[in-house]
Amino acid sequence: MINKILDTIGWLGTALVCASVAVWFFQPDSRELSRGLAIGGLACTLTYILGQWRRIAQVFAGRQAKLGSITTVSIIVVIGILVAINYIASRQSRRWDFTAAKQFSLSEQTRRVLENLDAPVTAKVFTREEEFDRYRLRLDQYSHLTTQLSSEYIDLDREPAAAREYQIQAYGTIVFEYEGRIERVTSDLEQDLTNALIKVIEGQEKKVYFVGGHGEKDTGSADRDGYNSIAGALTGDNFTFEQIQGGHSNLTFTVRDGSGRQWVLRRPPLGHILATAHDMVREHRVISALADSGVPVPAVVGLCEDTTVNGAPFYVMEFVDGIVVRDVATAATLPIRIRERMGRSLVEVLGRLHSVDVDTVGLGDLGRRDGYIERQLRRWRAQFEQSTTREVPRVLEVHETLVARIPPQQGVGIVHGDYRIDNTIMTSDGEIAAVLDWELCTLGDVLSDVAAIVAYADERASGGQPLPMSLEGFPSAEEVRSLYAAESERDLSRLDFYLAFNYWRLACIVEGVYSRYASGAMGDDADPATVSAFGDRVLVVADLAAEAVARLGDSR
Question: How far is it, in rounded angstroms, from Cα 333 to Cα 280?
Fold first, then answer.
């Protein structure tokens, strides 16, 4: 009878250990349960061994049993080693990211925030149960870097009382709790999560300081609109920062003091970035060099390269008030005559930019002077091949055609690289007050900028999305050509090649977006229709590129 009880205890121990392993791997949020099951299983196993030690000894006493025992011991040793390795690995929060851009790794700024946590932080996620995994994937990245961060997942539909307690207004709200303070955020993007963490930890708005030595105005100057006014304002604790929405690359913030003065702060995005991307020093240099060139740019106040200030180099420029024509709704509110003037100003300013003597303004070494289109085709072909997850022969065919038909470059000028109406600030009279977003600026073939205006105003390339420049008053493709011809002596007979290049480059960009959605990198809740639309758009834009290059005929 006692033997049967002990046998039952032994089998129970085995079952508990197996259950512990299953819970550990398949229910990561129930680690305490897993440990409890493991302890119970080991206790049962030990009880069985102590109660049946004579039977166990007899089994291992025979000749055959000795050989079997060696095998059994070997198996036990191997299992023990594997268990030990798994245990050690589970205690080490390490991950490896082999992607070129480290897109699945956290930024150094985020790492510093997490590593410096000296008290527990709780992240409470309020959303639907079916969306828990999406947020868990992100927050697990954070918890792997610190033991101070724990997460809770609350189904708003099942626990409305918790929602009322934390004043939750929307699904997908994350509440950080730290030493009695809370901070809410409705985004799972790294930059938003980390900013929320910084706010709840510090309990105050972060101050931003910048250093001298980069051509900013003298702090002792009598110019009340210069650097000295900002330096004086920094003595107060009344700065607020608000991110300017609309961009998808560098982060731009409006900075306000208590007196109502405003500036603009620009810095790289959070997360890992390529070595040559998002170069704030380069962008600051371009804008500073163009200050007296006749090209309207914001006045630069200062550059800070000290990454201990806010985690990355950044620069501050004067705030330029005006209209940003970002969508059809904004454009529709403008009189037709103002739209006409905006269109003319857009092309006129581009002509001025392209006429700037690069050596005179000190930008002669900004980039290689020749071979611009060839380099661009090579770069975007490589990026396309790295990002695509499917066969898109049309894109490759157009690329080969473009490579074979590159026209001779007509001199060298400053190429903006992303010139379009929503990258400008307009006055109420329709004049450009400032050209923005100089991130892609370099030296090269300036006709690519002219064609970009046409390509980015083509609704056929937008995936059906209405575009501001499609409204009456804004210039057509032929009018853009005519207006630029009046500003420049360059030969525009092969402008269709540059239009084809811009369409093709856009196809490469959209394919990257499609691939990220299709692979689930943008979340599992992406609308299938939206994903499919991105895929179809690539083909449409590639066809537009093929049509444009075909209009060149057989000329070379």
Answer: 35
List helix spans (H) across 205-270.
227-233
Which of 7-16, 87-96, 511-520 is predicted least confidently?
87-96
Q: In 3D, which of 390, 377, 450, 457 has the Cα closest to residue 417?
A: 450
Task: Identify the architecture of domain 108-202 in CATH.
Answer: 3-Layer(aba) Sandwich (3.40)
| 432 sits in which H/E element | strand 432-435
Of 468, 504, 480, 441, which Cα lies nearest the Cα of 344? 480
CB atoms inside a 10 Å sphere around CB 402: 24
Phi, psi of 425 (to 5 degrees): -110, 125
Dihedral sign, Cα of residue 540, residue 541, residue 542, residue 543: positive
Predicted pLDDT at 223: 43
How many other C-beta atoms are found inside a 10 Å radius of the C-beta of residue 51? 17
Are the C-beta atoms of 295 and 352 separated by less than 8 Å? yes
**Sign of the dihedral through C-alpha 426, 427, 428, 429:** negative
Q: What is the pTM of this model?
A: 0.58
Dihedral sign from CA coordinates of 191, 196, 202, 203: positive
Domain ranges of the chain: 2-85, 108-202, 227-316, 328-550
Lowest mean pLDDT among 246-250, 289-293, 389-393, 532-536: 246-250
Give the CATH architecture of domain 328-550.
Alpha-Beta Complex (3.90)
Residue 90: how many CA atoms within 13 Å on its side-chain side? 11
What is the C-alpha to C-alpha distance for residues 202 and 121, in angstroms, rounded to an integer? 13
85-141 pLDDT, tens per residue?
555 455 444 555 544 444 456 777 788 888 888 889 999 999 888 888 888 888 888
Q: How many CB atoms lie within 10 A of CB 552?
A: 17
Percent of the chain with pLDDT over 70: 75
What values do phi and psi take at 29, rounded to 5? -80, -5
d(CA 77, CA 91): 21
- Angle at CA of residue 311, ends 310 and 317, nearest 5°: 50
Kindly state the DSSP code that residue 323 receives in the 8-state scheme: B
Class of CATH domain 227-316: alpha beta
Q: Which long-range contacts (CB under 8 A, 24 or more apart) does 250-256 make?
A: 250/278, 250/280, 250/283, 250/437, 250/439, 251/191, 254/319, 255/208, 255/316
* Distance between CA atoms of residues 519 and 457, nearest Å: 29
